[in-house]
């Protein structure tokens, strides 16, 4: 195993405090949480705390004053107010929870699917959500009450349905906001399924906003439920805060306490929920990380025609890629081979089509892009036109991918170790412990000085160079046959670039990897590539061994690229000798 040198230390970043910990550092958050916990405890322990049966009435206790027997007094039927308040809390909180859960059961999955996949489901569900929001909630509740009877539980389920567009829109907006982040691409490129990406990455992103939303919705539901009971739409025999308000209102002059206590309970619960929501919002905003987006969302490349040719590891034949329904062609019939253990550089200026070729191989062209013709094969096996599930077994497992912007390709809300071991577990079927050991070994192998610490770290706690080492570890974690590196050093500073190239060369030789190295930099080509393809305006204009291209470039464009390389910094002469006159 090669020794690696000059490893940059991880950038010192203060440890990240969890959202709960931030809420616990906010005095208002703590007070409101304590109030909520007390209310919840009192509700759950109503049978223990209530002095008597909430329905038991006594003529002697009508409008009873506050006393040891009736700590909050008695009502117009001689029932104990404290007992009714405690038991009433069960009805009010349960009713509100039913409405909230109903809205989440509908809104969460619909929002996840609409935000992630978009298209027809998004259009239909957005239209349905707009329709539901346009309905006057109270009128609908009154109309359906005549159908289903005066059950408060049914009313709260219906109210939950009416509230579901709120959850739907929040989840949909949050998911579509992160759907185009690079780390979601990275998860796709690693071969993770859509279901897994939704369940792990998307759910984690919507979790915070949804908890905040739920606290607000719970407060609204408690008040709406009380309002319905107040208007007499509940069961009059059951104690609830709303029915107590109703009775209190009728007796406001004889016994104002009948109105005061349920009113206070409602106020305290709603205020505590609103303050918890606000504290959560502050905590979430403080922890927000702004990742970088890529240019468009990906879609699996459609079928190309043609047979899989040659016995090369990677074989691309007459590849054509177009946008705008095929009218704008950006790759014009590219053919290339990468042999087992060979490093092929795909070089060209920005916009020449290098990335389109790489993404076509992975079956991950941006939305609007399609392979209009050509063939791509890995070890003789056709890739273009294969099913999404087949491509998932290839990406990450047989083809490793190293992206350009390391930090943006790591999910900011997951620890680095979890992100790497997830891919290893999916592809190699390892246990949690075995995956962890493998990832720790890999982190050590790519030159990370304290693998255990990096395993536990979040992406913002490490430097760009470290993040690129982490992504290289991820790319080789399942022992792929082919590595596609898309400008893996462009976003790094020059000293780190050299270290990363050394690492890639060591790994390539150690594992006998075939590598397609996309770059605009002939210096990098000189460092690492055996063979070079020069690309210009969607076509390969020159193709040959790296040494030959440097010694005797045939195409003017290659000569101008080589010239500009030497204007900048000299090539590191790992594989290619550059002559002293400025020509390669
Ligand atoms: N999502 C897209 N929609 C339309 N055109 C696109 C899209 N992505 C890329 N292109 C076009 O495809 C062409 C090739 O782009 P590509 O990203 O492959 O270039 P590149 O050589 O990799 O450049 P760079 O090094 O800047 O990434 C460009 O003309 C670009 O405008």
TrEMBL record:
<keyword id="KW-1003">Cell membrane</keyword>
<comment type="similarity">
    <text>Belongs to the binding-protein-dependent transport system permease family.</text>
</comment>
<feature type="transmembrane region" description="Helical">
    <location>
        <begin position="210"/>
        <end position="228"/>
    </location>
</feature>
<keyword id="KW-1133">Transmembrane helix</keyword>
<feature type="domain" description="ABC transporter">
    <location>
        <begin position="316"/>
        <end position="562"/>
    </location>
</feature>
<keyword id="KW-0813">Transport</keyword>
<keyword id="KW-1278">Translocase</keyword>
<dbReference type="InterPro" id="IPR025966">
    <property type="entry name" value="OppC_N"/>
</dbReference>
<dbReference type="Pfam" id="PF00528">
    <property type="entry name" value="BPD_transp_1"/>
</dbReference>
<feature type="transmembrane region" description="Helical">
    <location>
        <begin position="93"/>
        <end position="117"/>
    </location>
</feature>
<feature type="transmembrane region" description="Helical">
    <location>
        <begin position="259"/>
        <end position="280"/>
    </location>
</feature>
<feature type="transmembrane region" description="Helical">
    <location>
        <begin position="28"/>
        <end position="50"/>
    </location>
</feature>
<keyword id="KW-0547">Nucleotide-binding</keyword>
<keyword id="KW-0812">Transmembrane</keyword>
<protein>
    <submittedName>
        <fullName>ATP-binding cassette domain-containing protein</fullName>
    </submittedName>
</protein>
<keyword id="KW-0472">Membrane</keyword>
<dbReference type="InterPro" id="IPR000515">
    <property type="entry name" value="MetI-like"/>
</dbReference>
<dbReference type="InterPro" id="IPR003439">
    <property type="entry name" value="ABC_transporter-like_ATP-bd"/>
</dbReference>
<keyword id="KW-0997">Cell inner membrane</keyword>
<keyword id="KW-0067">ATP-binding</keyword>
<feature type="transmembrane region" description="Helical">
    <location>
        <begin position="137"/>
        <end position="163"/>
    </location>
</feature>
<dbReference type="Pfam" id="PF12911">
    <property type="entry name" value="OppC_N"/>
</dbReference>
<dbReference type="InterPro" id="IPR003593">
    <property type="entry name" value="AAA+_ATPase"/>
</dbReference>
<comment type="similarity">
    <text>Belongs to the ABC transporter superfamily.</text>
</comment>
<dbReference type="GO" id="GO:0005524">
    <property type="term" value="F:ATP binding"/>
</dbReference>
<feature type="domain" description="ABC transmembrane type-1">
    <location>
        <begin position="89"/>
        <end position="277"/>
    </location>
</feature>
<dbReference type="InterPro" id="IPR017871">
    <property type="entry name" value="ABC_transporter-like_CS"/>
</dbReference>
<dbReference type="Pfam" id="PF00005">
    <property type="entry name" value="ABC_tran"/>
</dbReference>
<dbReference type="InterPro" id="IPR050388">
    <property type="entry name" value="ABC_Ni/Peptide_Import"/>
</dbReference>
């Amino acid at each position: 195993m090669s020794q690696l040198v000059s490893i940059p230390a991880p950038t010192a970043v203060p440890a990240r405090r969890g959202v709960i910990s931030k809420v616990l550092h906010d005095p208002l958050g703590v007070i409101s949480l304590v109030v909520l916990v007390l209310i919840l405890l009192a509700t759950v322990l109503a049978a223990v705390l209530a002095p008597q049966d909430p329905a038991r009435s006594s003529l002697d206790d009508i409008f009873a004053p506050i006393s040891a027997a009736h700590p909050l007094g008695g009502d117009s039927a001689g029932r104990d107010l404290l007992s009714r308040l405690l038991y009433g809390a069960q009805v009010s909180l349960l009713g509100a929870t039913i409405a909230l859960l109903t809205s989440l059961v509908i809104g969460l999955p619909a929002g996840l699917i609409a935000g992630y996949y978009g298209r027809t489901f998004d259009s239909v569900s957005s239209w349905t959500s707009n329709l539901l929001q346009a309905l006057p909630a109270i009128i609908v509740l009154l109309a359906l009450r005549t159908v289903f009877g005066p059950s408060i539980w049914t009313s709260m389920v219906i109210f939950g349905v009416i509230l579901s567009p709120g959850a739907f829109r929040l989840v949909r907006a949050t998911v579509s906001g992160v759907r185009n982040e690079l780390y979601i691409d990275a998860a796709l490129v690693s071969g993770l399924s859509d279901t897994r990406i939704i369940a792990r990455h998307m759910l984690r992103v919507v979790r915070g906003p949804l908890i905040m939303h739920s606290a607000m919705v719970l407060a609204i539901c408690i008040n709406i439920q009380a309002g319905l009971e107040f208007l007499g739409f509940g069961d009059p025999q059951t104690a609830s805060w709303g029915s107590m308000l109703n009775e209190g209102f009728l007796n406001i002059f004889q016994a104002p306490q009948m109105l005061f206590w349920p009113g206070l309970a409602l106020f305290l619960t709603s205020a505590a929920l609103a303050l918890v929501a606000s504290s959560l919002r502050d905590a979430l905003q403080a922890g927000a990380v702004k990742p970088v987006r890529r240019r468009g969302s990906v879609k699996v490349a459609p079928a190309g025609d043609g047979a899989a040719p040659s016995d090369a590891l990677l074989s691309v034949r007459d590849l054509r890629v177009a946008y705008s329904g095929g009218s704008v062609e950006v790759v014009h019939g590219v053919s290339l081979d990468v042999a087992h253990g060979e490093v092929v550089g795909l070089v060209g200026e920005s916009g020449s089509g290098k990335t389109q070729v790489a993404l076509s191989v992975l079956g991950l062209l941006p939305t609007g892009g399609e392979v209009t013709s050509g063939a791509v094969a890995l070890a003789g096996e056709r890739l273009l036109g294969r099913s999404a599930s087949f491509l998932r077994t290839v990406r990450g497992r047989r083809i490793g991918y190293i992206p350009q912007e390391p930090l943006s390709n790591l999910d900011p809300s997951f620890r680095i170790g979890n992100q790497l071991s997830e891919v290893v577990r999916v592809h190699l079927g390892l246990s949690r412990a075995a995956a962890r050991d493998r990832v720790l070994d890999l982190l050590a192998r790519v030159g990370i000085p304290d693998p255990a610490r990096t395993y536990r770290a979040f992406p913002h706690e490490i430097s760009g160079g470290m993040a690129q080492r982490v992504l290289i570890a991820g790319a080789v974690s399942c022992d792929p046959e082919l590595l596609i590196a898309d400008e893996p050093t462009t976003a790094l500073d020059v000293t780190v670039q050299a270290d990363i190239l050394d690492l890639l060369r060591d790994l390539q030789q150690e594992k006998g990897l075939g590598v397609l190295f996309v770059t605009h930099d002939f210096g990098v080509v000189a460092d690492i590539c055996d063979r070079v393809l020069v690309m210009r305006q969607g076509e390969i204009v020159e193709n040959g061994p790296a040494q030959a291209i440097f010694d005797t470039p045939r195409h003017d464009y290659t000569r101008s690229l080589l010239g500009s390389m030497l204007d900048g910094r000299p090539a590191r002469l790992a594989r290619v000798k550059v002559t002293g006159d400025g020509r390669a």
